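It is worth pausing here to work through a concrete case rather than discussing structure prediction in the abstract. The textbook approach is simple: state the sequence, then state the predicted structure, then interpret. We follow exactly that order.
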Amino acid sequence: MIRYLTAGESHGPGLTLILEGCPAGLVIDFDQINYELSRRQKGYGRGGRMRIEQDKVVPQSGIRHGKTLGSPISFLINNRDWKNWQEIMHPVDEMPETLTGQKAKLAYENTRPRPGHADLSGAIKFHHKDLRNVLERASARETAAKVALGAIAKQFLGQFGIEFASHVVRIGSVELAECDLALAEIRELSEESEVRCVDSATEEKMVAVIREAIVKKDSLGGVYEILVDGLPVGLGGYSQTDVRLDGKLAAVMMSIPSVKGVEIGMGFETAYRFGSEVHDEIYYDKDGPKNKGRFYRKTNNAGGLEGGMTNGERLVIRAANKPISTLYQPLDTVDMLSKEPAEAIVERTDNCVTPAHCVIGEAVVALALFDVFLDKFGHDNMDDIRAAWQRHLDFEI
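Step two, the predicted structure:
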């Protein structure tokens, strides 16, 4: 139902975002979009780029007087750092040969690919001899665009009582013991934490292990959890691969740079348990909400999805992101032109991005849910969608 595209390089003039398929009549809160962008920039272990940029969207199309028109929505996010990179990254003008110092190093010494990065594979794929032609677009800077698009999806879903939260459950060797909190409490506690951890004692240990990585000029990954409440039963499908919601969610999460694993609900743990310990038994409450009966489960090992569809319980997704592949103490590599041993190039980087991944994860999950919601309830205008949603809620077997 929806399509979205992003364009732009990390140190280019800015990012371009296009969202097609958003229904007409949705009120857009631009302050909320910009707030989501600011959330992405926070977190202990982020690098110097976060102090340079102050990401804000510049609306271009598809919205009039604060409401969507049903036509494609487009935004710009300008890169403040562009002023320092115009000579190196200009779309038209040739790069001057008079660059000196750090600028010359950034401009000309891009032949030593980083292990774990897109550098070498991208250069071979596109026949580039300058790795900057790869690393600028492969950069996670593009995730700012996804966060802005996801903010629109979250505003739409919020109209139907769907709420999001996220938190970090592991950084390096430090792991949160458990989290059995209401969604609002998770959201509040994680927003107050510089590593988005809901437990203050665990937060201190996470900060300490990131600080250790900084001292060692190293990087750390982690595991984070995305939670969604209020989803109606039946989003997604089971009849084909491309309609299964679990497949869509896994795809968008794995598309985030540095994510190497995704699980839903109990996830990998289900492989070690008996079926009787895994599957969520079904019950019926005759005196459910608004004096209507409802089916429910006392446990949620499935993480809110069964058979590729939402089942009415909380959606629970975890993702593991590897350590950033740029190290200030660079790893061994090979110069792709001379073929001689070398040290990998060093770009300005972060030491840990797991807290920021929470915000990016919320965004891409929201976009996937936005899509299946429109597939279920229509996509032209908010009035028709709301009526179809209400009919679905009123249906009783």
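Step three, interpretation. Residues 81 and 101 are 18 Å apart (CA to CA). The chain has a mean pLDDT of 94.
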